[in-house]
């Protein structure tokens, strides 16, 4: 990756982490796992619109980043649980701040969108 003027190479690492933790599926998975440990099927049922493949990819990436722990239980049929790690729990606090900000400003954002759409349609 070519460095961009004004940005240090370490900013690329920050961007890579933000790309992972700030995508819509990761945010939803982290929010759900903050409440309790869940199985794959439970996560899939609670996240509207996510495909099995996308949930698998998201969970693997979160596990790789140390945010989610995957536990396989030696039973038949196989049981796999997912839970937040302590690091993942610290991220949830940050996500909750973003959710609170969104709730506090949703009317302003809706008004700005309506004004923009009206201006563009014009």
From TrEMBL:
<keyword id="KW-0804">Transcription</keyword>
<protein>
    <submittedName>
        <fullName>Transcriptional regulator</fullName>
    </submittedName>
</protein>
<dbReference type="InterPro" id="IPR036388">
    <property type="entry name" value="WH-like_DNA-bd_sf"/>
</dbReference>
<keyword id="KW-0805">Transcription regulation</keyword>
<keyword id="KW-0238">DNA-binding</keyword>
<feature type="domain" description="HTH hxlR-type">
    <location>
        <begin position="12"/>
        <end position="110"/>
    </location>
</feature>
<dbReference type="InterPro" id="IPR002577">
    <property type="entry name" value="HTH_HxlR"/>
</dbReference>
<dbReference type="Pfam" id="PF01638">
    <property type="entry name" value="HxlR"/>
</dbReference>
<dbReference type="InterPro" id="IPR036390">
    <property type="entry name" value="WH_DNA-bd_sf"/>
</dbReference>
<dbReference type="GO" id="GO:0003677">
    <property type="term" value="F:DNA binding"/>
</dbReference>
